[in-house]
UniProtKB/TrEMBL annotation:
The keyword Acetylation does not apply. One of its GO terms (cellular component) is plasma membrane. The lineage of its organism: Eukaryota, Viridiplantae, Streptophyta, Embryophyta, Tracheophyta. This is Wall-associated receptor kinase 2-like. GO terms for molecular function: ATP binding; protein serine/threonine kinase activity. It comes from the Eukaryota. GO terms for biological process: cell surface receptor signaling pathway. It comes from Prunus avium. The keyword Transferase does not apply.
Length: 265
C-alpha cells in the first residue's frame, strides 16, 4: 500500500481505497437522495392529480351550466312567436366575429363578463358579451337566461336590441346591436372632471327618450298581457348613446317581469 492506494494483487495496478467511514457516508447520502427523489415524484404526481380533478370539476360545472341555459332557452323559444325568438349563433360564428376573442376587440369589462366589438359574416357590426367562466354557474345561468328571455320580448327604439345568443362549450354569449358612442356616464363626466360635451337640451332629450323606454317596459305592450318589465338598475352607465346621441337603455340582468298594477280612478 502506498499513500491512499492499495495494490490489487492481480497485476492490474493500483486502485483507490475509500475509508470505511466515508463509504458509509456515501451510502447514507445515496439513500437520502433516493428518498428525497421519491418524495418529489410523489408530490408531483399528487399535484398533477389535484389539478386534473379541479379541471374536470370546472369542465363538468361548465357543461351543466350550458345544458341548463340551453334547456331553459329551448323552452322559451318554443313558446315565443317566431318573430321574437332570438337567433342562435354557433361558437364558430362568434369566434370569427371577435377574431377569436382578440384583446384588441374588447370595448368593455364588467364583474360578470367582457364585451367585444364583433363583425358578423354579413359585415354588420355587433356587440358581443361573453360571460366569464370563473363566475358561479348558478349566477351566470340566471343572468344569461333572464336577459335573453326579457330582451327577446322587447322591441323599442330606445332599448338595446338583442340579435341573438350562443350557449356552447365556450360559455354563454349575448349578441346585441352595436351602439358606438359610449355611455351617458362617460359623456356627463368626460375623460376629466367638468369636461362634459352634453348640452342641457341634449340631456333633456335623452331623459325624454329613456322615459319613453321605461313607459314601454312598464306597460303590457312590452310583454304578455297584464305583465310589466321593471329594469331595477337604471343609471347613466346603463344608458348608451349612438352617433346621433339617441339613447338606448341596456343591461337587463337585474330586471324582473311582474304582474301589471292597474289603478282605476
Amino acid at each position: 500500500m502506498e499513500g491512499g492506494l492499495i495494490y490489487s494483487g492481480s497485476g492490474k495496478g493500483y486502485r483507490n481505497k475509500m475509508p470505511a467511514g466515508l463509504t458509509g457516508f456515501v451510502k447514507s447520502m445515496n439513500t437520502s437522495m433516493k428518498i428525497s427523489l421519491g418524495i418529489c415524484i410523489s408530490f408531483f404526481i399528487i399535484l398533477v392529480g389535484i389539478l386534473l380533478i379541479l379541471s374536470m370539476c370546472k369542465i363538468i360545472e361548465l357543461l351543466k351550466r350550458i345544458a341548463t341555459s340551453q334547456h331553459i332557452l329551448a323552452i322559451h323559444n318554443n313558446n315565443a312567436p317566431s318573430k321574437l325568438a332570438p337567433r342562435k349563433f354557433s361558437a364558430r360564428e362568434i369566434s370569427r366575429a371577435t377574431d377569436y376573442f382578440y384583446d384588441g376587440r374588447i370595448i368593455g369589462r364588467g364583474g360578470k363578463g367582457i364585451v367585444y366589438r364583433g363583425v358578423l359574416q354579413d359585415k354588420s357590426v355587433v356587440s358581443i358579451k361573453k360571460f366569464k367562466l370563473d363566475v358561479p354557474s348558478r349566477i351566470v345561468s340566471e343572468i344569461f337566461v333572464k336577459e335573453v328571455t326579457i330582451l327577446s320580448q322587447i322591441k323599442h327604439r330606445h332599448i338595446v336590441r338583442l340579435l341573438g345568443y350562443c350557449a356552447d362549450l365556450g360559455g354563454e354569449i349575448l349578441v346585441c346591436e352595436f351602439i358606438n358612442n359610449g355611455t351617458l356616464y362617460e359623456h356627463i363626466h368626460g375623460k376629466s372632471e367638468g369636461s362634459s360635451t352634453l348640452s342641457f337640451q341634449m340631456r333633456m332629450k335623452i331623459a325624454v327618450e329613456i322615459s319613453a323606454a321605461l313607459e314601454y317596459l312598464h306597460s303590457s305592450s312590452s310583454t304578455s298581457k297584464n305583465k310589466s318589465i321593471v329594469h331595477l338598475n337604471v343609471n347613466s352607465k346603463r344608458i348608451l348613446l349612438d352617433k346621433n346621441y339617441r339613447a338606448r337603455l341596456a343591461n337587463f340582468r337585474e330586471a324582473k317581469v311582474i304582474p301589471q298594477v292597474i289603478n282605476h280612478v
